Amino acid sequence: MTTAQAVADPRIAGAVLGRAFMTDPVFGWLLHGRTGLQQRLTLVFESFAAGALPKQDAQVLVTEERTAASIWLPPGHWKTSTADLVRQGPKFVRGLGSRTPRALGLLTRIEKHHPAEPHWYLEAIGTVPEARGQGIGPRVLLPVLDRCDAEGVPAYLESSNPRNIAFYERHGFVKRPLFPLPDGCPVITPMWRDPR
């Protein structure tokens, strides 16, 4: 049985999430027609992990076999700062290329609808294709949800893939109202979990 461990190297989480998001509808829309999809996604998620790691209490978790990963931002630290942009920018731009403005517009819209109340933010979670359906995803989800429960803190995420909604609901997340998205963007479902 695999366990999750915190990693300090953003490349590890980036590589796992890059593979996990190969069939994600929103990233497919962002990068439609671009070559080297896995490499591009790896850079994007490496940039997210690099932005998270310097934040106190942030959790970048990866299973021992590198089959699943998650990026968790602690209460009060979900918003992208100028320092985050400097740290994340080069890899983010290399990954998205000419689609960077489209991605930044989408992220700005998502941030505008982000809840204000304190919560842990699940920025990304994914399992590589060959390991799906084996119960591995919870290993990078539950350590922080257990902490949320122990500390009485909610959790929040935006699901970019409708197939994952039931997984989140099994772990206590409930759907929130949808918010407007750019033309052509697949649905993004905000979800909230009160502590148990």
Can you give a write-up of this model?
This protein has a 7-stranded mixed β-sheet with strand order 1-2-3-4-5-7-6, with helices on both faces. The chain is globular. The chain is built from 7 helices and 7 strands; from the N terminus they run E-H-H-H-E-E-H-H-E-H-E-H-E-E. Helix 1 (10-20) packs across helix 3 (37-52) and helix 3 (37-52) packs antiparallel against helix 4. It is α+β, with helices and mostly antiparallel strands and 196 residues long. It has a single domain (4-193), classed as 3-Layer(aba) Sandwich (Aminopeptidase), CATH 3.40.630.30. Helix content is 39%, strand content 17%.
Task: Summarize, please.
It is built from seven helices and seven strands.
Keywords:
about 200 residues; alpha+beta; Aminopeptidase; 7 helices; about 40% helix
CATH architecture: 3-Layer(aba) Sandwich
Average pLDDT confidence is: 92
Q: Which ranges are low-confidence, i.e. pLDDT below 50, for 5 or more consecutive residues?
A: none
Number of domains: 1
Question: What do we call the CATH homologous superfamily?
Answer: Gcn5-related N-acetyltransferase (GNAT)
- SS-based structural class? alpha+beta
The count of DSSP E runs of length 2 or more, i.e. the number of strands, is 7
What is the number of helices? 7
Query: What fraction of the residues are assigned to beta strands by DSSP?
Result: 15-25%
Strand order of the largest sheet: 1-2-3-4-5-7-6
Radius of gyration: 15 Å
Helical fraction equals 25-40%
Q: Helix and strand string, N-terminal first?
A: EHHHEEHHEHEHEE
What is the straight-line distance between the termini?
26 Å
